[in-house]
Design brief:
Layout: H1 3-30, H2 33-54, H3 62-77, E1 83-86, E2 92-95, H4 97-105, H5 118-121, H6 131-140, E3 144-152, E4 157-166, E5 176-182, H7 184-206, E6 210-214, E7 220-223, H8 225-235, H9 253-256, H10 259-268, E8 273-282, E9 285-297, E10 303-312, H11 314-335, E11 340-345, E12 350-353, H12 355-361, H13 366-370, H14 383-394, E13 399-406, E14 412-424, E15 427-437, H15 439-495, H16 504-535, E16 543-545, H17 547-557, H18 559-564, E17 568-573, E18 580-582, H19 584-601, E19 607-612
Parallel strand pairs: 17-19
Antiparallel strand pairs: 1-2, 1-5, 3-4, 4-5, 6-7, 6-10, 8-9, 9-10, 11-12, 11-15, 13-14, 14-15, 16-18
Helix pairs in contact: 1-2, 1-3, 15-16, 17-19
């Protein structure tokens, strides 16, 4: 074949290879690995054909060799990546300008490299020793790829991807094509992506929320440990079942009916979905979650993935229930009060009250009260007092006062107010108070007042009667004592024969008259003693007296009377009793009253015992 025709053939093949190389580069950038492999195979097939065409002519005359080298150089220049052709011994046969520029960018000399060893052109530790790679490509007979080969220079470091492909038949050791692609940026991006994924997993595991990432088909892509454990516990699955698991299998039962609408909202409309309370039962335990589904979009705004979050609000729901129960209980207590309870805000407006307070005002709805000022529910004369009490409570004082409420029917209701201020973070926030109905108390006070007046009037009347009684007793006693003294004097004179001798019959009558006179005198003296006692003028005289004598005198006077009534009256005195300091006459009166009552209420044949003894009993 003539050199001109061979040059045109090589030029056409180089154009095809250049086009395929461009497609290969685009496929590599776009990540189309299958297309990239297909284009690479095509390029290698064309290179193999070219090598089969060129190798038989390597031993041709010099003009043909010159043309062959020119075609090889032209073909290498059509490759977009740094490329060179070496023989099996690693000597460089040809290289393109991209390879020379690449070597210069890494700090190497990119000129005069023909017939030099590739190990010298790409010295370690840039890519390592090339000989094992060349031998491996020769032995396998098909392209060899090595990724992430590191290189280091004084001012730069990076990574390369290397392809080595034999250009001759597998049975012969022919030249080798070496292509180098700098993937430093790609490696950095991949490392950043891996680091971001690690950070994402760290965030996933660090937050106290169950998190899962779903793809566009709403299948599980990844999740944190807490979400994984929750799925295994609730769905009864194995860990190997999680990748690609449909999200419908892990969603709560209440979502499944509307799942299509939820998917449309998140995937098509790009709007987040949230359910604040989702109840699920696992065994005997109840759980509540706040479920949120957020779309994750790319730079173009297309939904790429969805983020599923389960926030455990079980404890919050329990506290909310407990708070509701406590609030209901407090409301029940407040409503059960007989007194009126109310609350006011910082501006002095009513914000809460119980039914008892509404009943005091004659209102049926609390809304009627919330529209009124404190001065609107009292009599006009009580308004200044209400304003003063409001100011005192704003200063932090507790107040206790009485006022008069004005009911809806314009009647008055006296109440007693006990209220205190409420402070929040040191600022006045409102007032709470209790109103006690005083109408019953006022009625009772009026009744007590009337009763008191009646008692005072009765007391005055009784005092007059008592004075009349005392005066009567005093007058009667004095008036009776005078004739009794005369009767007693004549009776004593007849009894002691001062007025002549009397017959026994007459002497007995005189004794009876004398005894009755003494009895009347005693009665009069008792009446006078009562009068003196009431007036506080009864004063006794105390002197030592033997106990036996005091008792014996009292018993001796009623001995005969007891015998006449068929009764037994006797006394006994403990030996060794000391004298007692008493008013003998008053003690004698007491003894007479006790013995008289005993004789009066003791039947015939009974006995009356009077005794005296010492005792240490403090109640005696």
């Amino acid at each position: 074949m003539r050199p001109e025709r061979m040059r045109r053939a090589l030029s056409a093949q180089a154009s095809v290879i250049a086009a395929l190389s461009l497609l290969l580069l685009i496929s590599g950038i776009a990540g189309w690995r299958i297309a990239a492999v297909a284009f690479t195979i095509c390029i290698l097939a064309i290179l193999f054909a070219m090598s089969a065409f060129l190798l038989p002519r390597l031993r041709s005359p010099q003009p043909f060799i010159i043309d062959q080298r020119e075609g090889l150089a032209l073909w290498l220049e059509s490759l977009p990546s740094p490329s060179l052709v070496v023989n099996p011994q690693g000597e460089i046969l040809a290289l393109n300008g991209a390879c020379a520029a690449y070597l210069q960018s890494t700090g190497r000399n990119g000129t005069d490299l023909i017939a030099r060893s590739i190990n010298l052109a790409f010295l370690p530790p840039y890519f390592g020793n090339w000989t094992p790679l060349l031998e491996e490509a020769q032995q396998k007979g098909h392209p060899l790829e090595r990724s992430a080969e590191q290189y280091f220079t004084e001012d730069k470091e990076g990574a390369c991807r290397v392809w080595i492909a034999p250009l001759g038949p597998m049975s012969k050791k022919g030249p080798l094509l070496v292509m180098v692609q700098d993937i430093s940026e790609e490696t950095s991006e991949r490392a950043a992506l891996l680091e971001a994924q690690k950070r994402e997993m760290g965030i996933f595991e660090g937050v106290p929320v169950k998190i899962a990432v779903l793809d566009r088909n709403f299948r599980l892509v990844r999740c944190n440990h807490s979400m994984q454990q929750w799925i295994l516990d609730t769905c009864g699955l194995k860990e190997s079942d999680l990748p690609g698991l449909p999200s419908l299998d892990i969603m709560p039962q209440e979502f499944r009916a509307d799942w299509k609408h939820i998917l449309r909202r998140v995937l098509v409309e790009g709007r987040a979905f949230e359910q604040p309370r989702v109840h699920q039962t696992v065994g005997e335990n109840e759980f509540f979650h706040r479920v949120r589904l957020h779309p994750l979009t790319d730079e173009a705004g297309n939904v790429r993935e969805a983020l599923l979050l389960y926030e455990d609000v079980t404890e919050y729901v329990r506290l909310e229930r407990r708070l509701a129960e406590t609030t209901d209980y407090l409301n029940l207590l407040i409503e059960s009060l007989n007194d009126g309870f109310y609350a006011m805000d910082a501006q002095g407006r009513f914000s809460f009250c119980n039914q008892a307070f509404l009943d005091m005002l004659g209102m049926t709805s609390s809304e009627e009260l919330y529209q009124k000022e404190p001065t609107d529910i009292v009599l006009a004369g009580e308004a200044p007092k209400i304003m003063r009490m409001m100011e005192r409570r704003r200063r932090g004082e507790k107040v206790f006062f009485e006022t008069i409420l004005k009911r809806q029917d314009d009647t008055a209701l006296p109440v007693q107010i006990s209220s205190a201020p409420i402070f929040r973070s040191g600022k006045f926030a409102g007032i709470v108070g209790i109103a006690h109905d005083l109408s019953e108390r006022r009625r009772l006070e009026a009744m007590v007042e009337r009763t008191h007046q009646d008692l005072e009037k009765a007391y005055e009347e009784l005092s007059v009667l008592d004075k009349m009684k005392s005066d009567f007793i005093a007058i009667a006693s004095h008036e009776l004592r005078t004739p009794l003294s005369i009767i007693k004097g004549y009776a004593d004179a007849f009894q002691y024969n001062e007025l002549g001798e009397l017959t026994p019959f007459q002497m007995d009558k005189i004794r009876i008259i004398n005894a009755r006179a003494d009895q009347m005198t005693k009665i009069i003296n008792d009446l006078l003693d009562i009068t003196r006692l009431e007036e506080g003028r009864l004063v006794g005289q105390r002197w030592p007296a033997p106990v036996e004598r005091v008792i014996a005198n009292a018993v001796g006077e009623y001995k005969n009377q007891a015998e006449q009534q068929g009764q037994t009256l006797y006394y006994s005195i403990e030996e060794g009793l000391p004298p007692v300091s008493v008013d003998v006459w008053r003690v004698h009166q007491v003894m007479e009253n006790l013995i008289t009552n005993a004789l009066k209420f003791t039947p015939a044949g009974g006995s009356i015992d009077v005794f005296a003894r010492s005792a240490i009993d403090p109640d005696m």
